[in-house]
Amino acid sequence: GRLYISQNFICFGSVVFGNRKIIIPMKEVVTVKKSDSKKNLQLKYGKKSVTFGGLVDCDGAYRLVQSLQLRTTQLKSGQPQHAAQTTFMLRQQASANLARLAAEPTYEDNILSPSDWLQLQRGATRLKFRRNDMIIAEGSISTRIYQIGKGTCRVEKKKASLSDSNNNQVVLGRMSSGEIF
Q1: What is the pLDDT of residue 102?
Q2: So what's the pLDDT on residue 73?
Q3: In angstroms, rounded to a whole number, what is the distance separating the alpha carbons of residues 118 and 114?
Q4: Confidence at residue 82, expressed as pLDDT on a 0 to 100 scale
Q5: What is the C-alpha to C-alpha distance for residues 32 and 43, in angstroms, rounded to an integer?
Q6: In 16-41, which positions are buried (b, 16+ CB within 10 angstroms) versus exposed (e)?
Q7: Separation CA 27–CA 126 (nearest Å)
Q8: Rounded-to-integer distance, Cα 14 and Cα 128, Å
Q9: Cα–Cα distance between 105 and 32 in angstroms, integer?
Q10: What is the pLDDT, as a whole number, of residue 103?
Q11: In whole angstroms, how large is the CA radius of gyration of the chain?
């Protein structure tokens, strides 16, 4: 899923296990903590709590939510001058974070943990396809994750041709056991 943080809301959306959306008004955030793994962000809002796991930049998200929570508190308590200073600081942090992330992409941080894989497998359905079966049609939108258990899979694209030939597909690549798409 994706976590979006703005001045007024924290929003989460995912389609992996159904369509899941969470919208938390910043003014309702009571506490924000990082977990021991330093990749999870725990929020308490109202009488509810939620943990967002596997964040690429948990430290940055933590600092941002903390600062936005402070700004919201300052605005509520009638301290607009302090809120303006906090807003300026937030803009500087955001610029620094964007520059750092652009300079140092960390692809390893997107790898699922063993517990993430177990959760995915619990909700999985095993499917069998025969040779030349189409799994996903070009241009269609899929909300599923596929992992190849056995065999191979071709990735093809239609040729941009006006002729009505039988061979109008070009093979872009092949995937094998263990690969995910």
Answers
A1: 45
A2: 74
A3: 6
A4: 63
A5: 5
A6: eeeeeebebebeebeebebeeeebbb
A7: 44
A8: 26
A9: 26
A10: 45
A11: 22
Identify the pLDDT of residue 108. Answer: 44
Q: pTM of the entire structure?
A: 0.46
How many of the other CB atoms lie within 10 Å of CB of 84? 13
Asked if 147 and 175 touch (Cβ cutoff 8 Å), the reply is: no
Pairing of strands 9-14, 2-5: antiparallel
Local structure of residue 123 (DSSP, 8 states): T
Regions of the chain short of the pLDDT cut 70: 15-19, 36-37, 80-117, 160-167
Residue 78, token pair as written in the block: 């009638």
The rounded distance, in Å, linking the Cα atoms of 90 and 19 is 31
Distance of CA 1 to the CA centre of its chain: 3
Q: Whole-angstrom Cα distance, residue 176 to residue 148?
A: 6
CB 50 within 8 A of CB 43: yes
